[in-house]
């Protein structure tokens, strides 16, 4: 990104330096010597951290690993809102269920279960057929389903053992669902 006086200069936008206005294509068409003469420098933008694990792509701001029961500004417990009635009129009211912000571990375990469930769904009919009519499930299907379940179990256990975001990223990157 081009900068002048520590302020970004977007490409393809006109800008003014001092009393001179430069056209939108000036940065693209100018030479490095011309840009340097005006104090315009190039700074490589820092790599953005993975938004699945960090807030706003900031490596210094990881998302919470564990679930957290939410509290209001005074520290009072918060509850899931449901449609109820106040003064005879429909209104959102607190339920008995505590409001919980899911941490990364819960989110990724849910994702692993959803992936495994989707993969198993294609052959679920064979399991039902076996239970209802005692029709054998082909050995390759049995092996494939066992591999899917084993990988889901492995990932869930590994996710639960993670103590920080870096470990979780490594586990998520190690997924091996086979085809």
Which features would summarize this protein structure in a list?
179 residues, alpha+beta, three-stranded antiparallel beta sheet, two-stranded antiparallel ribbon, 6 helices, 39% helix, extended
Short description:
This protein is 39% helix and 21% strand. It is α+β, with helices and mostly antiparallel strands and 179 residues long. Helix 3 packs antiparallel against helix 5.
Radius of gyration: 28 Å
Number of strands: 9
N-to-C series of helices and strands = EEEEHHEEEEEHHHH
**Alpha-carbon distance between the two ends:** 41 Å
The total count of helices amounts to 6
The overall pLDDT average reads 95
Strand content: 15-25%
Low-confidence stretches: none
Describe this structure in words.
The mean pLDDT is 95. Helices cover 39% and strands 21% of the residues. The chain is α+β, with helices and mostly antiparallel strands and 179 residues long. The strands form 4 sheets. Strands 2-1-5 form a 3-stranded antiparallel β-sheet. It has a two-stranded antiparallel ribbon with strand order 3-4. The chain starts with a strand and ends in a 6-residue tail after the last helix. It has 6 helices and 9 strands. 6% of the residues are buried. Helix 3 packs antiparallel against helix 5 (139-161).
């Amino acid at each position: 990104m081009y900068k002048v006086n520590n302020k970004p200069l977007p490409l393809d936008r006109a800008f003014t330096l001092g009393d001179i206005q430069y056209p939108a294509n000036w940065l693209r068409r100018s030479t490095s010597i011309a840009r340097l003469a005006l104090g315009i420098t190039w700074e490589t933008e820092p790599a953005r951290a993975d938004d699945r694990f960090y807030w706003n792509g900031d490596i210094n701001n990881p998302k919470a690993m564990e679930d957290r029961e939410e509290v209001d500004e005074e520290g009072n417990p918060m509850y899931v809102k449901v449609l109820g009635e106040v003064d005879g009129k429909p209104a959102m009211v607190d339920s008995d269920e505590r409001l919980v912000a899911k941490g990364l571990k819960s989110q990724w375990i849910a994702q692993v279960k959803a992936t495994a469930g989707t993969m198993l769904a294609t052959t679920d009919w064979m399991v039902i057929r076996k239970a209802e009519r005692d029709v054998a499930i082909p050995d390759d299907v049995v092996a494939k389903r066992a591999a899917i379940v084993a990988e889901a179990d492995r990932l869930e256990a590994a996710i639960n053992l993670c103590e920080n975001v870096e470990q979780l990223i490594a586990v998520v990157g190690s997924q091996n669902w086979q085809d």
